[in-house]
Amino acid sequence: MIVAQGVAFERTHLDVPASVAFPLLFENRDGAPHNITILDGGGKPLFVGETFTGYGSRTYAVPPIGAGSYGFRCDVHTYMTGTVTAGVAVAG
Asked: How far lies 45's CA from each of 14, 65, 80, in Å?
């Protein structure tokens, strides 16, 4: 889960599975609009979550992303940033 409060993310690092879709719970505790966008190494969006005004939450359905490290940000407040680390996919 990632929380936006005080026009900042409460955590700036998130570990997720690699190469499989995953749910991402995002809670907006501000009266301001926020979202989460995950970016590739070149700054191109891999996933763009719905922007919404708090107080509320959304569970984003994030498509598979490959193993590696990616940035994330709020598109409304681009100084709100963090890192997503996608681990090695587990063989089923």
From this structure: 17, 11, 15
Q: Please count the other Cβ atoms lying within 10 Å of the Cβ belonging to residue 31.
A: 8
Question: Which residue bears the tokens 């719970």?
Answer: 25
Please list, residue by residue across 57-74, b when 16 or more beta carbons sit within 10 angstroms of its beta carbon and e when fewer do: ebebebeebeeeebebbb
The region that residue 19 occupies, defined by phi over 0 for left and psi between -120 and 50 for alpha, beta otherwise, is left
DSSP state, 1?
A: -
pLDDT tens per residue, range 20-75: 999 999 999 999 999 999 999 999 999 999 999 989 999 999 999 999 999 999 99
